[in-house]
Amino acid sequence: MQNRDIRQLGINPNHWYVVARSSEVKNKPLSVKLWEQAIALYRDSKGQIHALEDRCPHRHVKLSHGQVIGDDLACAYHGWRFNHQGECTAVPYLANNQKLPTCTLRHYPVIEQDGFIWLFPGNVETKHGKSLQPMGIPEWEHLNYIATVSVINCQAHYSYLIENLMDMYHGHLHQDYQAWAEAALEDIQEDANRVDAHYTAQSYYKIDKIWSISQLFFKSLRRLHPEPLNVSYVYPHWVSTLGKDFKIYCLLCPVNETQTKAYLIHFTSLNAFWRLHKLPIWFRRFVKNNLFGSAQKLLDGLVLQDVQMIEEEQQAYLKHPIRQSYELNRTLVSVQRLMRSQVE
Ligand code: FES
Ligand SMILES: [Fe+2]
C-alpha cells in the first residue's frame, strides 16, 4: 500500500464529509455525489434533513428528480415512495392482491450543523463511528465572526487540493489577493488523524479599527506585520488561522478520483473590539449578516488561481503518471503519509 499512487488513493469513509450548504437544500431534493456515490438529500415535513441513495429501486432512475410528499421521497417516474430508512412505503397503483416491494435503499447518517450538511459514508454503527462527530465550525453562529463562503469545484484528485492548502509557499501565486507574505515553515506536528504545520508570515491586514475592513479594498491601508500562520489537515478537512484575526476552513467532498468539491469558509474575527459584547444581540446579528460575504471577491479570486494550478497538475499527471516531481516542503511528506494511513 505504501507505494500506491497518491493520485489514485480512495477516501476513508469513516469520517463526516460535507456534501452541501444548508441553504442548498430547500423543499426539493438535491442530488450530490460523494466518492462515486450518488446521494439524494431532502427535508421532511419538519425540515429534518435525510440522505438516501439517489437511485429508485424500481427502474434505477434518480430519486432526486422526485418530490417530497409529507415525510417521504416520491420518485418522479411512477411515484413510488420511500421513507428516510429507504423503505418503500407506497406504490400509487398497487393492486389489492399485491404487496409493497421489500426493496430498501441505502440511507446515510446525516447531520445539519453550522450551516452545512455533514454526511457519514462509512459505518456509523461501529464503536469508532459512534464516537466521531462532525468537525464543526463554531464561528459560523458566533456573533464575533464575519463569514464568506466560496465553493471550489475542481477537476482534480483531493490530494492536490490538500497539498495546495498545506503548502504556504504557494503564496507566490496569489500576489495581490494574498493576506500574507514571506511564509516560512517553523515546525510540523502529526498524529494518526491530523497534520499541523506552523509557519510564520507577514500579514497585510490587522482588524483592530472600525474601518479595518476597508483594508480589503485599499492597499495603502495595509501594513505588513509578523503573524503565526497555522495550517492543519484534520482528515478529511482543512483549517487555518492567521494570527487572531482570520480563520479559514476548507470542508471537503471528494467526488471521484479526478473531481473534488469543497467549501472554503473565511472568517474575519471582531474579537479585537472588546466592547462589542455590550451591544444588543439583534444589532450584532444585523452586523454579522450584513457583512456576510465581505471577502467574496478576495476568496473567489484565490480559488480561481488555485483551481487552475491544481487542475493543471491533474492533467499533467494523467498524461504522464510516472513523471517525477520535486518537492522541497516537508509538510507535504506528512500530508501524504496521513492520506495513505487513513485508507490502509
Ligand atoms: S422508476 Fe421510480 S417509481 Fe418507477
Ligand atoms: Fe492558494
Automatic annotation (TrEMBL):
* Keyword presence, Oxidoreductase: yes
Identify the Pfam families for this entry: Rieske, VanA_C
Keyword Oxidoreductase set for record = yes
All residue ranges annotated as the Rieske domain in the record:
16-119
Per its record, what are the GO molecular function terms?
Answer: 2 iron, 2 sulfur cluster binding; dioxygenase activity; metal ion binding; monooxygenase activity; oxidoreductase activity, acting on paired donors, with incorporation or reduction of molecular oxygen
Record keywords, A-Z:
2Fe-2S, Dioxygenase, Iron, Iron-sulfur, Metal-binding, Oxidoreductase
Q: Which SUPFAM superfamilies match?
A: Bet v1-like, ISP domain
InterPro entries, per database record: Cholesterol_7-desaturase, Rieske_2Fe-2S, Rieske_2Fe-2S_sf, VanA_C_cat
List the PANTHER family: 3-CHLOROBENZOATE-3,4-DIOXYGENASE, IRON-SULFUR DOMAIN CONTAINING PROTEIN
State the protein's name: Aromatic ring-hydroxylating dioxygenase subunit alpha
Organism equals Iningainema tapete BLCC-T55
